[in-house]
Amino acid sequence: MVTDNGMVTDNVIELQSVRKQFGDYVAVEHADFSIAQGEFFSLLGPSGCGKTTLLKMIAGFEQPTSGSILLEGTDVSTVPPYKRSVNTVFQQYALFPHMSVLDNVAFGLRSKGMGAADARRQAAEMLEIVRLDEFGRRRPYQLSGGQQQRVALARALVNKPSALLLDEPLAALDLKLREAMQLELKRIQRELAITFVFVTHDQGEALTMSDRIAVMSSGRVEQIGTPEEIYGRPASIFVAGFIGSANLLPGTVSPSGASVDLDMGATIDVADTNGQTPGTEVTVMLRPERLVPYSGDLAPSKSVVGRIKEVIYQGSEVRLIIDLDAMTEIVATIEPDDMTPLVATGNLITLSWVPEAPFVMPGRSAIVGATGTDFDEVQATMDGKELARSAGADDGPKINRRALLIGGGVVGVGALGAIALSSLGGNDSSTGSSGTETDEIAGGGVGQGSSAVRIINWTEYIDTTGDGEVGTIDRFSDESGVAVTYSETWNDNEEAYGKEFAAYLDGGNPVPWDIAMPTYWMAARLKSKGWISPLPFNLIPNYQNLEPSYLNLGWDRGAKYHLPWQAGFTGFAYNIDITGRELKSFSELLTPEFAGRIGFFTEMRDTLGLVMLAQGNDPASATEDTMNQALDTIEELTTSGHVRRFTGNDYLEDIQSGNFAACVAWSGDIAQAENPSVRFVFPEEGAMSWFDTMVIPIGADNGVAAARWMNYVYDPVNAAKITAWVQYVSPVVGVRDELVKLGGDSAALADSPLLFPDDATKANSFVFADMEPELDRTITERFITIAGG
Questions:
Q1: Which residues pair with 304 in a beta bridge?
Q2: How many Å apart are CA 249 and CA 325, to the nearest integer?
Q3: Model confidence over 215-255: pLDDT tens digits?
Q4: Is the pTM of this model over 0.90?
């Protein structure tokens, strides 16, 4: 199908940063995902998580507060339900009691003007598909609940919708009938190849029927994946606890990276730390069915021993509730064939697991052991409350009443008390903007430090304190009580990748920053490496002020790992004292007139993109041939000495001093130039468009403080002050109005086409194409070889 923008997509439904608010209550927050043609897609979560609200917005019964809903490529956010090519099946079947089954199914076709004979023929065909063709003459009251359900399905499907939306349609059926209908629904869906969107709070239903599942909690999508991914590789502690039973063991990745040092003093071997580096707080999940009776000697770090508290026969399996000591409880499930006289209440049992069974998740669970045996815990989960509760909660964290015996190591209640006090992680207590203690908890698996934040950024990229004016950093510190360590040493993305990330993480050490500011494509690479953390959106409410176009990138749908800092254009700058005339075209920089006086960027996409534009090629649709054509030119200009040198963000000195007559440049930097002879040019051939992001490195200590910083700079008033100084494109909606309120030179910037580009400027700006990893590596290596030479 073709979208409004002319793009071809296989997605039937696409949600773009969808938000729904009722008064002060936010029902859905930041929903950003797609559902493919012919997919059985389930929205799964506890009551009140927002899944039904999300379904109603797709159906058209509710409109999003913000964001867009696309159906077959067309934005239908404000389109009424009857004009959308979707049908909905609710819990109440709403069949017409006075009509026959056949007429019930044909009703929608008749209401659209189809002739009676054709409508009844198509209705009969649909009844055959749902295996009710022999019941066409009956009235609904003469059918069972499961048969009525299939009539409702047939009535919805006979209209051939693009998608069928089902809101817990099996909830009223008894267990056996519900299980049979699960298989029947999946059969019908596969036979018709229609997209099904199924809402349920029943994990078994979702796992049985779905191609993919979106697990929701408190209005947010926690994880989207196949049933195998959701169950076996949960993205969060909530998902692990909500989907089935799980034994959760919080701890810290050991220095070796091959095991986890549990909070209670023992160590457990893991096959994979799931990208979590040594020293990172994690939770190890062991599913009950992965624990098996073990008759050999106790294997340290690879087995568990405890006393059987309950033996529950469940037909195909036997459930064991085991006390590892007087305070700790885990669950194991074994097959009836594994039952021996030793598997009896009161006996000791040793359980082991295969090396791949322990699954490591970021963050620390406040519940230790089984999640499915404590009524309060299960109720909290079904109410949508986060399992990873903080110490100091009214009912006390679960961690302080459970201990664990693993590989012979025992930790008592006294030691657990100390663990509970530190269960928030980070390096200090949480403090609010006034510096007093609060209950702020940073989600996303980051550390909970709140009194200090360490930021690395590009030069000239924030308003500094000076000339009688207090800058953003000092204002933030004064208002929040957070001490800021600020560095302007991010000079080049590739250089920073090696120096600020790989040098630490490849050696098993944490990155020394809480916030870094890479360009978007580098942020994508960092995410692919597992080197940045999900953001704690619960502490960044001002993210709703961001321009949505930055939040819907293919590498981070919904912007869960990055948020934009500033955007801008790459053109060129020239020093008119050296050139002696104005320059308008990038091609002029390539002429012999300026040999030996030209500077190019080490940022490959900027330099390569401008040369491609000068050659008449579009960087947004770059091919290997067009990129190599530009690289040939760059290599020739470099070996001949035409290009004086390649620079990072330190190019300003060269252009201002006259070392460069002209050079590749970023729009906002030249506004900060002290030499009035230096001018920025948006090239006639076109400019490159980009934006830099804020990310939190994996293992960062100060997640609360980092979130406060992000929330602060996304306030339009604060963002406008930053914009007035850096003169880049702000991603914050409302900055233009705030600049006008500031008056003077700031107000004049509200008319700048480089800060608020018009349609002509946008049309002549280009982003660099996404490349396959192998091609990216090949092109980058060639460019680095040229630039390094």
A1: 351, 406
A2: 15
A3: 998 889 999 999 999 999 998 888 998 888 888 888 899 99
A4: no
